[in-house]
Amino acid sequence: MKTISKYIKVIETARDSESRLTEKESLQFNDFEIINSNKPVIELDSSKKYQEILGFGGAFTEAAAHTLLQISADKRKEVIESYFNSDTGLGYSLGRVHIHSCDFALENYTYVEENDDKLETFDISRDKEKIIPLIKDAIAERGDKLKLLASPWSPPAWMKTNNEMNNGGKLLPEYRETWARYFTKFIKAYGGKGIDIWGITVQNEPEAVQTWDSCIYTPEEERDFVKHYLGPIMEREDLEDVKILICDHNRDIIVKRASAVFSDREAASYVWGTAFHWYVSEEFENVGRVHELFPDKHLLFTEGCQEGGVKLGEWFTGERYGRNIIGDLNNWTEGYLDWNLVLNEKGGPNHVGNYCDAPIITDTNEDKIHYNSSYYYIGHFSKFIKPGARRIAWNSELDDLDITAFENSDGSIALVVMNETERDHQFILKEGSSGVEIESLAHSIKTIII
Hints:
Blueprint: E1 6-14, E2 22-23, E3 27-31, E4 41-52, E5 55-59, H1 62-68, H2 73-84, E6 94-99, H3 125-129, H4 131-142, E7 147-152, H5 176-192, E8 199-201, H6 219-236, E9 243-250, H7 254-262, H8 265-269, E10 273-277, H9 284-293, E11 298-303, H10 316-329, E12 335-340, E13 342-344, E14 360-363, E15 368-371, H11 373-382, E16 390-396, E17 401-407, E18 413-419, E19 425-431, E20 434-440, E21 444-449
Parallel strand pairs: 4-19, 5-6, 5-12, 6-7, 7-8, 8-9, 9-10, 10-11, 13-14
Antiparallel strand pairs: 1-2, 1-3, 1-21, 3-20, 4-16, 14-15, 16-17, 17-18, 18-21, 19-20
């Protein structure tokens, strides 16, 4: 038989080598029938297609924006390019922003003066200092708009049962309408600065009482807030095109919260889909279950990070990202939003000391940038699975590898293969009647472009 002249690109990141999103030598497909091997097979089937991808991105927190102003201008530019440039960076197309303060802000703050229930003093001047310039620089680097998701961590203290932004508490019933109008004020204020808000979540982590900015909603309270206040007021303010997402919490409670809202036809009519985080649980099947129950609604991963401060040089952090991204994408997730784009050498700033890791860490004392393994692992998806790509079917005879595959709008296929084991694995990649032998190194991730 004649060899088929079809080549594939292989991009690799591996713990025990120098490869970091490194393009390897191209491989050539052969007629599958003439490959003399007993190696296991991974077979692609692009005739079966699933969800369409929105994109990948991270969060424009005040902590990230502040940190980037503590380093030199050229280093700041490098970080922005590393994330948002489609050729030399990760090609991020999504972003998340907090509605006034979150834990990764320098302090508690809001956009209004105390007890201003008419919102006459609403002012986003603080965001104009650091956050908005960073977003605009990211958009300029990308050369196109970003889909921006906005989330609140807490209403102002005077709107809450505990009279503080931190430590949970609930939204007082008499301020439900005011709080819903606060969302619309925020969206329009950002729009006035040339920044479109694509979507909002009702509440960040609505079942967590945190020592930082937090607010509790039961699933039914979230449903009723959307149904009677947020949804109708968004429509009244001509903001019905801005997507509303619910839950914005972990996978262990995603089915319960989605069911409470989407089982109510009127509430569901206002809601685009379900947002979720990765903490506590890797029950990816719960994400798929929400799709099975409510296939007309969408799924978006909106936050994940490595907790417990900076983990410079660690490999398990990258593998955590890879494992979670693959698990969620294979269960109908349409996009992936990392948490802080960048943090300082402590894993902050954070106004309650809740330090975490980020894919890029800056040493503000030494004016240095550190790229963690998580940066490279995210890149194996975000650089090659483009917005508009559709997930396709595959079948594998290797249980030790984590796999997902997408067909881009240009017809190219991006297959991601991750190996968390301690040994190398050889396999044959088959597409149609063609095949090629490939090796997956221990503790590595590969993106294969066909």
